[in-house]
Amino acid sequence: MKLSTKLTLFIAGSKLVIVLLFVLALPFLVKEIASQYANYTLKQQRKKVLSILKENGIDYYLRGEPNYGGYTMLKEEFIAFSPVGPKVIVNTIKNSQVLIEGDTLNYRILSYSFRSKNRNYLMEIGKADASINRYNKPLQRFTLYVLITLIVLTILIDLTFIRIIVKPLANIINTKLINKEFPFRTDHERIKTSTTDFKYLDDSLVLLISQINEAFYKEREFTSNASHELMTPITILQNKMENLLAEESLDESSAIAIVEMMKTVDRLKKITNSLLLISRIENEQYIRKEQIKPLQLFHEIIEEIGHRFEEKNISLVLDISADAVLQDVNKDLMFQLFFNLIHNAIKFNRQDGTISVSGIFLNDGRYQIKVCDSGIGIPTEDVPFIFNRFMKTNLNSQVGYGLGLAIVKSIAVYHRIKITVESGVDKGTTFKLIFKGESA
Amino acid sequence: MKVLIVEDEKTLAYEMEEFLKKSFYQCDLAHSFQSGVMQLELNQYDFVLIDLSLPDGDGLEILKHAKENNPEAVYIIITARTNLKDRVMGLDLGADDYLAKPFYLLELQSRMQAIARRKFNITEDLIAMGKFGVDIQKRLIVFSQQQIELSRKEFDLISYLLLHKGRVLTRVQLSEHIWGTFVNDDYDSNYIDAHIKNIRKKLNAYSETDWLETVRGVGYRIKK
Questions:
Q1: B80: nearest CB among A232, A310, A407
Q2: Model confidence over A156-201: pLDDT tens digits?
Q3: Which of A410, A425, B113, B187 has the greatest CB tally within 10 Å of its CB?
Q4: Dihedral angle sign, alpha carbons of residues B95, B98, B101, B107
Q5: Among residues 185-244 of chain A, which lie with CB inside 8 Å of chain B?
Q6: What are residue A246's phi and psi, to 5 degrees?
Q7: Does the pTM of the predicted model rise above 0.80?
């Protein structure tokens, strides 16, 4: 999951939890607010009544009667005065039931005792519960809507902001980590960001890339130098043996021994030459400007190693269109690549086996060449390593030194050819090569 | 024929000298740029073999010098530096051939012969090989006016053996000449033997081929 998605999900989740808690608490909160407000109104009313009493005296209400009671039309509020004993002093707000004209209703009642004209009175102001809580429901609903709107709004803001903050990271990933081809490019621009963490990450990556490249170039240079340096001593050995072999006094057993030595030197020479070839390819010393017809190329290869087919009585099926052309390649390297593949296909084939070479255009216009053999195959667990240098697999005899496929790989990489292998023991091996770009 | 070998690796120079002497070449050795230039000013040579990497100068410079004093000679560059740029530069400066280290002396000698034939316009008639005649230039093998069909590789093989008549050629030498520097890693393969067998079969249909000898454990030879 992407970091921005994760952050958004987390933020939305935490907000949701808070909203849920708030929604659960909302009825109690609203009720509490309503009750506080009712108390406040009651006190205000008392204040008002007291000021009226002060101005007009208690008779303003009593009009000669000992008690007074009055209520609004819907019995939502009432006010009552009654005389009480001189010792009674109250100032409370309580909930209680009151009987008014046959209806028993729940009221919040403010009771207050006061003195007027040398007599004690009790004032009761009531407010019906129903009227207190009348706005609770709409209030709750309204609050909920506002809340939801706010949450959605903040989530949108968060999302945009997270995107902006995380964008440099996405840039780093896109430009420096995804689809990298070795050796890495080093001319990357630094990512613009004010986040120090990203800056640090970017700098570290640039540093790492340059270190990897440096190590790679050093290794390449070493291979090249070492191979060159080995050439002269190998020449000397080879030439000494040739001269020895030409001695007329040489007996048969010595001659055979020298021939064996020559074979060994030859092997050393071929390993060195192969390493040198790989390092030259990696150093891009070959020009990729030629046009070749794969059919013609395969004919040339077959002419070169035709005799090897006869040795094992292998039949070859060549299914390549005469019009197919490969652009921007190096002919010698292409020859070497397919030569090595065909050579392997023969070498690891069984008696009376088959090899098929076919070329097709894929739907996206790229050209694909497939080389299949009916040979001994490669154990599945070894398949990922077959292009490694000096890798030998599924061999019961010493038949090579394991550089043929390493050369194939380096030529393929140099020409941006995608190469894949399918194989299994006794199932034969199939190499698929997909040429990049336009080939018509 | 006089040969100048400009090679700073003394052992290698001696081996080259020893080999070429047997084919009656007269060799002078130069182990440095300076002595190479000096020898070229003093003497006339038919062949000049130049190693490009000398301790006190670039072999290509010698080539420039030599061309002034010895324009007629055959120049072969020998080097471990086998990049295209060097090769093109060498050939531009008038080198006749370019031999990459490591090489077989046999190959060196064959190249020298081939260039000499071309340069001095030596046309040979049919070379006799038992009752057969071989025309290396025209790539023909005939038996009493009758042309015999050999494959390209088979002819390469027989003509190489013929050029080094009397010498035993090993399978690695033959295979390198015919297949070049392909990375051919099956050094124990018997494909040379298979080719020889085919050649014998084709030729035996006309006449005896006892002039083509198998030297057990070593290789093949065409009798002198």
A1: A232
A2: 898 888 888 888 888 888 888 876 766 677 677 788 888 899 899 9
A3: A410
A4: negative
A5: 228-229, 231-232, 234-236, 238-240, 242-243
A6: -80, -10
A7: no
